[in-house]
Design goal:
The complex is a heterodimer.
Chain A: H1 3-14, H2 20-32, H3 34-44, H4 46-52, H5 63-91, H6 94-108, H7 110-120, E1 128-133, E2 139-147, E3 150-158, E4 167-174, E5 177-185, E6 192-198, E7 207-212, E8 218-223
Antiparallel strand pairs in A: 1-2, 2-3, 3-6, 4-5, 4-7, 7-8
Helix pairs in contact in A: 1-2, 1-3, 2-3, 6-7
Chain B: H1 8-18, H2 25-46, H3 49-65, H4 77-98, H5 110-131, H6 135-146, H7 151-158, H8 162-183
The chains are: A alpha+beta, B mainly alpha.
Chain lengths: 225, 188
């Protein structure tokens, strides 16, 4: 039996799936050929490992856990950010920030003022997170970040009337002004995760409102602080 | 057919991005890669869907909180997540043991429970490795190893020439070994 032939038989040999005569021929070759024996040794432990996986079928990852997980991460991230902000505020008291802003603005121009404000206040131009609330336990978490020519809006919604198959519209608004960010539907359990973009820029609007398209009834509202 | 393993680095990059990524996309990607097998592992260990879902959520939360401490030199992402899952399952069993009114599963002797968890972890990782093979390779291994068919019986069953079955089985095992090595799985 040639080495090439034995290599072809090794898979069946390792898995004990050869006929008795074939098995004996391979065993005899392995006893005499160090190269083939080394190749056999590399595969010989696999059946013992495979035995642990017998009957195991990998299930789908539960989608409900995915949404709950993202909710938890976002809320922990928000809590951590609030803690950091409190620490920063303690480090730079309000009077110091105002004085620094005035001095820097007067002496060096708006660029430096923006830097100082950035230290104390979350910048409007950077990303922004807020919570939207509505009737009947509906709520949403929105994450806004400046996108190309507007805002990219990630919205995690829960608690909408289940199974309603309603179309909802997201609007970015300030008094007397409104821009649509697009529409979405919730799943059968009243949850949704959507990514929308709008031409409205951060700073141009003060609140996010979700309305039901069929009757423009308010469903969720949240104000940018 | 060559197996193209997912570069382990790609997963380490995902973990690295977990803390800074505010969109949640890194977490979502990591969950979709590993959520299924970790859910299978937890469901198998606890025998309760609700409890298994809680464990999986806890695993990824702990991963998120401790992402800064993950060292890709020490363990692959999968191994790290399984270790977190094992600890979460042990914690859950302890909690269930002190709340006999809420039995989630049979009480398990601690040492025996840990040993069987190690075996189960190994099993699920091998199952994940099998999933990474081509369907043709996976079929050969399943039929020979799990159904106990000989090469000749597989040839008859599939209608493939005997030589093809044999060479495919050999390539399947070589691919499996490579995937397991890449995953950092070794026999205990």
């Amino acid at each position: 039996m040639s080495c090439a032939h034995v290599r072809e038989e090794l898979g069946g040999y390792v898995l004990a799936a050869l006929e008795p005569a074939e098995r004996e021929a391979v065993a005899a070759h392995l006893a005499a050929c160090p190269d083939c024996a080394a190749e056999h040794a590399r595969l010989a432990r696999l059946p013992a490992l495979l035995a642990h996986a017998d009957g195991l079928e990998i299930p789908a990852a539960p989608p409900a856990v995915e949404e709950r997980l993202l909710d938890r991460v976002a809320s922990e991230r928000g809590a951590a950010r609030r803690r950091r902000r409190r620490v920063r505020r303690r480090r730079f008291p309000a009077w110091w920030r105002i004085a620094a802003g005035v001095v820097a603005g007067a002496a060096l121009g708006a660029g430096v003022t923006a830097l100082v404000l950035h230290d104390g206040d979350p910048p409007r131009a950077a990303s922004y997170a807020l919570v939207l609330r509505g009737d009947g336990g509906a709520s949403a978490r929105a994450h806004l970040s400046p996108g190309r020519g507007g805002t990219e809006l990630h919205l995690w919604v829960k608690g909408l009337p289940p199974g309603a198959d309603a179309v909802y519209e997201v609007r970015c608004e300030r008094p007397g002004w409104s821009a649509s960010a697009g529409t979405f539907r919730a799943d059968a359990r009243g949850r949704a995760y959507v990514v929308l973009t709008t031409a409205a820029r951060l700073g141009e609007y003060e609140s996010i409102r979700v309305v039901r398209r069929s009757d423009t009834a308010d469903v969720l509202t949240g104000k940018l602080q | 057919m060559p197996v193209l393993p997912r570069p382990a680095d790609a997963d380490a990059v995902l973990v690295d991005r977990l803390r800074s990524d505010e969109t949640g996309e890194a977490m979502r990607a990591l969950y979709r890669l590993y959520g299924g097998e970790l859910y299978g592992f937890a469901l198998n260990a606890l025998g309760d869907r609700g409890a298994a879902e809680e464990i999986v959520q806890e695993v990824f939360l702990r991963a998120w909180r401790n992402a800064g401490r993950y060292d890709p030199e020490r363990a692959a992402v999968r191994t790290w997540l399984y270790q977190i899952a094992r600890n979460a399952i042990i914690d859950s069993r302890r909690r269930a043991a002190v709340r006999p009114g809420l039995p989630q599963h049979e009480p398990v002797d601690d040492r025996e429970g840990r040993a069987s968890l190690e075996q189960a972890m190994l099993g699920w990782q091998v199952a994940a490795a099998l999933e990474r093979l081509t369907p043709e390779h996976r079929q050969m291994i399943r039929m020979a190893q799990f159904r106990g068919l000989t090469m000749r019986e597989i040839a008859a069953h599939t209608g493939l020439p005997l030589g093809t079955v044999k060479s495919r089985t050999w390539y399947a095992l070589r691919s499996l070994r490579l995937v397991l090595e890449e995953m950092g799985v070794t026999p205990s």
